[in-house]
User: Fold this.
Amino acid sequence: RVEGKIHVRKEVHGNSAISFSHPGWCGSQCVVQDFACRHSSQSVESSEEVTSFPLPIDVLPHRPPFLFIDRVTSLEVGVTAVGHWKLTGDEWFFPGHFPGRPTLPGVLMCEAIAQLGAYALLTDPVHQSKLPLFGGLDGARFRRQVGPGDELELQATLGHISARGGKGSGRALLNGKVACECDLMFVLVDR
Assistant:
């Protein structure tokens, strides 16, 4: 049983965000979604309930067919996020990669992780006027094939961030097992 206090903290892209104070969980304060399902006994100090995070299309500059995050399920603003990408089989890359055995290109898993990291970064008002651009990719490992009908759970954590750029890392999980992991570097430019 987890006990703590939930507070409506601030507006994030027009939606209220909440912080959950609990020593030992995320270090100090986290922004969470679906807290009623994961924490059954808390005191709520506001009648305003958060039911979802901003849509990725409302936060990220990416647009279909190059927007890979369908939904975000966990967020610590400016620090970490968890999201999902459901592959329908209708994506533009499957017919050519590979005919007869459609496989998600590994580099697109890295891009999806980077987009989720950008989501975590851009929900912070300090960085909303910036555009994070790929600066590098290290330690990329591809451990599972991903195909039509699969859903990836994406995890991204930001590390050091300066006014000019930063670093992060992430994973893509398929059925709870690592399909891809990588370290990312990015530069920040004005939009």
User: Anything to note?
Assistant: Residues 1-51 have pLDDT under 50 and may be disordered. The first helix runs from residue 35 to 38. The two ends are 44 Å apart (CA to CA).
